[in-house]
Amino acid sequence: MRIFGLNWRIIRALLSSQYAHMLEYRAEIALWALSGVLPFIMLSLWSGSAARAELGLDGVALDRYFLSAFLVRQFSVVWVVYAFEEDALLGRLSPYLLQPLHPLWRYVAAHLGEQLTRLPFAALIAALFFLIQPQAFWVPSLGGLLLAWMATWMAFAIAFLLQSLIASLCFWSEKATALERLLFLPFLFFSGLLAPLTAFPPAVRAWVQWTPFPYLIDFPARVLSGDPVNLAGGFAAQLGWVLLLLPLVLLLWRAGVRRYSAMGA
Amino acid sequence: MVGFLGANGAGKTTTLKMLCGLIHPSAGEVLVAGHRPQRRHPDFLRRITLVMGQKQQLIWDLPPMDSLRVNAAVYGIPDRVARRRINELSDLLELGEELTRPVRKLSLGQRMKAELLAALLHEPEVLFLDEPTLGLDVNAQMRVRQFLADYNRRTGATVLLTSHYMADITALCPRVMLIHQGQLFHDGALDRLASRLAPERHVRLELEQPAPAEAFAALGQLDRLENCEVNLRVDPALLTSVLAQILARFEVRDLEVNDPPIDQLIGELFRQGSL
């Protein structure tokens, strides 16, 4: 029996092949993991700033927040628009469209395979962080870890759907990645990658919470670091964004496929 | 097996894409195996396959076997059946350890054969093959051709094949369809296509004595006259009377009547891009 076109055997085959595929690129993925150290750069900037105390950014809590932000980013980074654009342009999408499986599942599996490959590198960077900042060391409770994992996974789902929405525009424009760059700017400022949202002016905070961005980094990072956070509100917002984006992606995809002319074939 | 012919830009690939559901028809209706292809119903997708020369579905960095496992799962083929089919098809395609080597390390011919294996694992009833031998060397072309003939004989699948290599068409397709500017120009046997494309017979003569060109003016179109060697193109309706006249007027050492070679005619058609 298949649910959303999937069964256990398909999931296992997709994940194992994509994990093997990503292992071929492990050196590149290690560099990607290393290039995600922006939260540590922000931490060093904030640590040396006089404004830190004014904004209520406590030392150890700040260390833990930025380490958590780094880890959440590592496991919610999305590149579907780039992979999709390349596949569409090179004609690789055509055979995928002719198989009884929604092509987006292949990209989901590729991302999960990449996350698994990234795991040891991210763990190594986290271990190095604790060596340098031993006072920041903490072990989240099992319940906390589970909630943080769920929040990170939901963050990945939102980011994946947002980018898939843009990727679907590849059916109309062969350069949809340019649009993705537009989305990156608000993500950078409002996701909590540069600073926890608690450091933002209340008016900005009130406005930003109606966008998907705080639920991509800030919310899961605060769950992981053990900051007080409105769990029910955060998870409800994440679920809301997934439920809003999913039908939009499917509708745009369907319209796009109607328009598809198998470029490159 | 049906050969699908046409000059560059005639719409062969577009038609194939429409038949397998990648493109929606702007007008009219397409029915393949009882389905409207553009709906891409899972039952329809399980019954067809599309192979495009030099376009790949195999994962580039992994051995073909990994992609085959994914295909087996996606098409719901039980493990045991999938293993049997992989063994059978790899025997026919003469693929062995290539299935366990990364695709990027395979030659073009080996890759094409692995692509065919992946495309046929679910035993489709309808095969759309777009230039499946493109870029392959002569030996690899022959092996792919032989495999397609065997597969067709074994499964009775419908095969629609486009190819710029006439040898593919002449070896595999008793029926050919030729399209030109969106219109079906011919649908029938290959030899009948020759008579439509070049409605003349080729007559080759070897005479005992040389004769002047004027002597052949009333008999047909003179293509070649070298000493005793004469090549003429003759209207088929007049062939018998022309042959009688030749035999009456000249001392003939040898005489041959041929249809023009089909590959030459279609090659000419492809080169000119028009009929």
Walk me through this protein's architecture.
The complex is a heterodimer of chains A (about 260) and B (about 280). Chain A has helices at about 10-25, 25-35, 40-45, 50-55, 60-75, 80-90, 95, 105-130, 140-170, 175-190, 200-210, 220-225, 230-260. Chain A has about 260 residues and is mainly α. Chain A has one domain (about 10-260). The longest helix of chain A has 30 residues, at about 105-130. Chain A is globular and about 55 Å long. Chain A starts with 7 loop residues before the first helix and ends in a 6-residue tail after the last helix. The mean pLDDT of chain A is about 90. Chain B has about 280 residues and is an alpha/beta fold. Chain B is built from 10 helices and 10 strands. In chain B, strands 2-3-4-1-5-6 form a 6-stranded mixed sheet, sandwiched between helices. Chain B has a 4-stranded antiparallel sheet with strand order 8-9-7-10, covered by helices on one side. Chain B is elongated and about 75 Å long. The model of chain B has no long low-confidence stretch (mean pLDDT about 90). Classes of the chains: A mainly alpha (about 260), B alpha/beta (about 280). The interface of A and B includes residues 14, 16, 90, 101 and 258 of A.
